[in-house]
Structure formats: C-alpha cells, structure tokens
Design a protein that fits this description.
The chain has about 200 residues and is of the alpha+beta class. Among the domains are: about 40 residues, no CATH class; about 90 residues, Jelly Rolls (Sandwich). Helices cover about 15% and strands about 25% of the residues. The protein has a 4-stranded antiparallel beta sheet with strand order 3-9-4-7, with no helix packed on it. It has a 3-stranded antiparallel beta sheet with strand order 6-5-8, with no helix packed on it. It is globular, with a radius of gyration of 28 Å. The N terminus is likely disordered.
Length: about 200
Amino acid sequence: MTPLGGSMPRRLHLNGVGRRSPSPASKETDMNNHRNGLFIGLPALLAASLQFSTLLPVPALAQSPSVSKPHGMGGSESIAPLPDLTTTTAGEPLLYLSTPDPVISSDILTVPPGGVTRWMTHPVPAFVYVLQGDLTVQFVDGTEKTFHEGDVLLQPRAAWHRGRNEGQGPLRFLAVFMGAKGVPGFLHPPSGPLAAK
C-alpha cells in the first residue's frame, strides 16, 4: 500500500510466449488489497469523483465582469468589460448548437414608449446589449426582470417571454443570435392564448 491508500504499481514480466503477466509479488498485493477492501485506492477514488463532479450542472455564482480579462496596453482605445454570462434570464445554462453551418446574426430592435413585443423563445443563444432605455423582460408566469442602458443578458431558450418599454423614451437594444443556417433566432407562438396577447 502507498501512504495515501493506493495500490503499489504492478510489476509485469514476460511469460514464456512473450505476453506480459503479473509477477508473483503483484499477485500477492492484489489479493491483499481485495481482501482488505482497498481495491480502489484513495487517489483513484478522488480522481473519479472530480471527473464526475464536472458532469453535474453548477449554477453560475455571479455574472459580473471578469477580473482576469487581459487588456492590451499601448492603444488609444478604452475598454469597458461587460459581464461574462453563463445563464439566461430564466436561469437556463448557456448551451451552443452543434452544427456544421454556424451563423451569427444580429438585429437592433427599437420599442417605442409603452410598446410591447410579441411572446417569443430563442432556440439559439441570444445575447442582448441594451443601447438605450430600460428593457423589462416579462415571463408567462408574471415575473419580470428589468435591464438598463449598458446591461447585457442572455435571452431564455425555453421560457416564453416578451420585452416591454415602460419608459418615456425609445428602447433600443442589440440582439445577437449564435445559431445555424436555417435555424431562426426566435420563435413566436403559432396559435393559442399567447399568440392572441
């Protein structure tokens, strides 16, 4: 046994036909480990648990500017970092499409004061940057989230939502869709109560 509970490395030797077989000493070690219930050593167990934990969904802790973003020196530009986003406004994790034909498309939408968009979902990641005004995202269940000029957000993939401008001036925002050829950036309900609203 090693100090951390793992097995000693196996010693292999060639048998008469050129195949490797465990040496008698390693057979004895394997039998002792099996008898003592230590067939899986502590290092192997820790490694397996760490690998498994990366498969579990982990909620984003915060969506704030990344401190470690490198910014080059020497130019006359100024850089205002925006938050790194990993979840949508509905709490869904960010997922990208697996496609041989990726496309990034974008639109600038303008909503007049008191205006409301149609209900929608986004089958592809949809990044929004509020250029002017306040964007209120309303969900079917009645919850709302408001984003102000300069804010960024990811629109939901599965949660029906719509945008509202409750301000006195126009609302303008940039919407960027990271999708694929032939896949729309947003879907509207074809019929039913949401289509009528």
